[in-house]
TrEMBL record:
Classification via Gene3D superfamilies: PCu(A)C copper chaperone (2.60.40.1890)
One family name in Pfam for this protein: PCuAC
PROSITE patterns cross-referenced by the UniProt entry: PROKAR_LIPOPROTEIN
Name this polypeptide is given: Copper chaperone PCu(A)C
Length: 149
């Protein structure tokens, strides 16, 4: 092997070795907890995994809901409240959890089709113009908690 071939092989192995899970912007563990009270909003949770660069989640849409907003639970003067968010930062290579008591989705009017399927299709819209389609598992009030694997 000549020097150029060795350098190309070394460069290729470095590039391939640097590709990892932190290189891809994605979301998983998405769940929608349906409200037990008709007309009240349901809550959506998931894990957002950052890619190579910092981005922000700037919107979430679904064709089978009336309204969907990003919110955060905050404490002010000893009182808990929720405030709408315009965006959620997703740092490169990091995981941001949308979870109870923190950042989450408020979802009004989940359609019967999604309820029957047990999945709500959502599109996550990021500041870099990426759009990621995900299916969130729909859980009705009283459903058992998922079993850890």
């Amino acid at each position: 092997m000549n020097k150029i071939s060795i350098m190309l092989a070394a460069s290729a192995s470095l590039l391939l070795g640097s590709c990892g899970q932190g290189d891809i912007l994605f979301a998983d563990n998405a769940v929608v907890n349906l409200s037990p009270v008709e007309g009240n909003p349901s809550a959506g949770y998931m894990d957002l995994h950052g890619g190579r660069v910092d981005v922000e989640l700037v919107g979430v849409t679904s064709d089978d809901v009336l309204r969907l907003e990003m919110h955060e639970t905050i404490e002010k003067d000893g009182m808990m409240s929720m405030e709408p968010l315009k965006s959620i930062p997703v740092p490169a290579g990091k995981t941001v959890k949308l979870e109870p008591g923190g950042k989450h989705l408020m979802i009004w009017g989940v359609g019967d089709y999604s309820k029957q399927r047990g999945l709500l299709k959502m599109i996550l819209i990021y500041s870099n113009n990426d759009r990621i389609e995900i299916d969130a598992v729909i859980k009705k009030a009283g459903d058992p908690a998922p079993v850890a694997e």
